[in-house]
Amino acid sequence: MAYKISDSCIACGTCIDECPVEAISAGDIYVIDPGTCIDCGSCASVCPTESISPAD
């Protein structure tokens, strides 16, 4: 199961540097590619706004 980024994302960039497989794309709200995400949770652990969670 991949992770997802909610609308509370502030596009700070912290998660991009943390992703070991470069599954996160920058934008107004960042996006995680579910096909690339390895479900490691590294991004969620560093998100200052707790905007990243496991996808449903």
Would you spell out the secondary-structure blueprint of this structure?
Blueprint lengths: L2 E3 L8 H5 L5 E2 L5 E2 L9 H5 L5 E3 L2
Antiparallel strand pairs: 1-4, 2-3
Describe this structure in words.
The protein is built from two helices and four strands, in the order E-H-E-E-H-E. The chain has about 55 residues and is α+β, with helices and mostly antiparallel strands. It has one domain: 2-Layer Sandwich (Alpha-Beta Plaits), CATH 3.30.70.20. A two-stranded antiparallel ribbon has the order 1-4. A hairpin with a 5-residue loop joins strand 2 and strand 3. The longest helix is centred in the first third of the chain and has 5 residues. The model has no long low-confidence stretch (mean pLDDT about 95).
Beta strands, count: 4
State the separation between the terminal residues, measured CA to CA.
Answer: 8 Å
The shape is globular
The main β sheet shows up as: 2 strands, antiparallel
Percent of residues in beta strands?
A: 15-25%
Number of domains: 1
Oligomer: single chain
Instruction: Kindly report the spatial arrangement of strands forming the biggest sheet.
Output: 1-4
Q: At the third CATH level, what is the topology name?
A: Alpha-Beta Plaits
Which consecutive residue ranges, at least 5 long each, have pLDDT under 50? none
Mean pLDDT: 96
The gyration radius over C-alpha positions equals 10 Å
Query: In CATH terms, what is the architecture?
Result: 2-Layer Sandwich
Helix content: 10-25%
